[in-house]
Amino acid sequence: MKKTALTIEGTNDILFAECQFKHRVEENIMKCFQSYGYFQLETPLMEHDSVFCEAEGLYRLVDRNGAVVSLRPDMTMPIARVAATKLYDELPVRASYLGNVYRFSDPTKGGRQNEFTQAGIELLGETGTFYDAEVIALTVNALLDAGATDFMVELGNVNFVRGLLSESHLSEEMQEEINDLMVKKDILSMEEVLETVTLEKEIKDIILKLPTLFGGKEVLEAMMQSVLPEQSKQALNELYEIYTYLSYYGYENYITFDLGMNKNMDYYTGMIFKIFHQGVGFPVAGGGRYDKLISRFGKEIPATGSAIYINRLTDGMSHVISHAAPKADELLSGDDKKALIEKANELRKAGKSVIVNG
Amino acid sequence: MEYITVALAKGRLGDYAAGIFGKAGYDISCLEDKGRKLIFTDEIGKIKYILVKASDVPCYVEYGAADIGIVGKDTILEEGRSLYEVLNLNFGKCRMCVCGPESAREKLQSRVSSLKVATKYPNIARKYFKDVKKQSPDIIKLNGSIELAPIVGLSDVIVDIVESGKTLEENGLGVLEEVCQLSARLIVNKVSMKMKRQILPMIETLKAVIE
Question: Which residues are within 8 A (CB) of A171 and not within 5 positions of it... i.e. 6 or more apart?
């Protein structure tokens, strides 16, 4: 019988040159994580389905007892589980990870990976902007160490928009709708929606401006002059503090702000960020503060973290890979097998890669 | 300075969009004698125009192969991709409607009988029936001559774009419900919007022309 000989859609073989390049990138990133005291841990590829409860696009398997298990769609949930069950009395904990995660993408859109590698960090048990800045700075540092240069960080805070919307006394459905439109920067439909509701004019004006509130530090400073709900004002102050700390790291030139940024409303609780790389259509890294997430495993632990999407990053840096397959340094052959093997071993000990032909 | 790549839909919509760039002061002479070429460069303005099938415009823009695209709201809704939708060009105004023979009106309201819907826009149709009408009809995807479906009994109703309503009328069909209003939109890649400095001024220039 002829077997199907292709990889499953959304998965890829990564062969020699690309594989070597990817590993070098990963190695530099993990080394950088360690230099900030984030030590690596591993969790199982599969977990009880309930660990990932609300995630979309899970790969589900059934085990021998009929229980549903899932392939991990990200690493944050497993680490949250570890934190709540094993590390809660050792806080704060700095952890890093490197591994493949699995998510079904919409097949009609094609060309997306369902299996991809993430390298990331989680800082568990610390609150405050000093630590938010540490996570962003470390992510930037890791990208630089990996050899990336042409990228920028986009920084926001979910509480800025949340403050504006909660002040508005709009229904939850309406808030969600506005949020969706804001994520698309669809000002036009936002105007239409806001026309149908009664709202303070000042708040309405700011909400309508949200999609355009991105850029450098000046965007943040200008907005800090406005009359804002307390929660929104606090959110801006946090961003300003984070920016200041990042300038101490020397990374202020990589930072831009998007005050209308607001993803996953029930996951993140404070600052959020994405990192874009020239020539890659999707973010190459992202993260944020998630102080409520771990409580679903029974312990209240504040946390902040980030993940680098290795495959997208190497895509963006592909101009530096030579696509020729790597070659061994020496090719030895000879009739005297003993001499041949001894010679090869000698060279290998000296750090050469050697192939023998007997 | 880097090039900005603009994805235009082949056909009437693309011609109109090119006209807007012209009105805004961009040199579109490279687009005049198209022949079979698919890519046209304005070396001075540093703009590349690419001609693609309308339904592919959101795909090019989402992946960043094009920074900007101009395409109908119907295509944006159907494709459901992750991108910024920044301007309404107020061109190509029309409606997405549920249409059919008058006799289908009753069945369309019924929660018990099984409804068949033919359409070029299965995602829009499915979402409308699910969210607005709380129904899950059989959706039959067609690629053209949608009006034929209810006439020959392939479906009860259709979901399609209605401009004048003439084609419907000539085939003995009419609008039964309106799904949404449509027009051409300017869409932008999420990374380009942030990484390419020329894009915001370009949007402002185009906006001034439209208003």
Answer: none
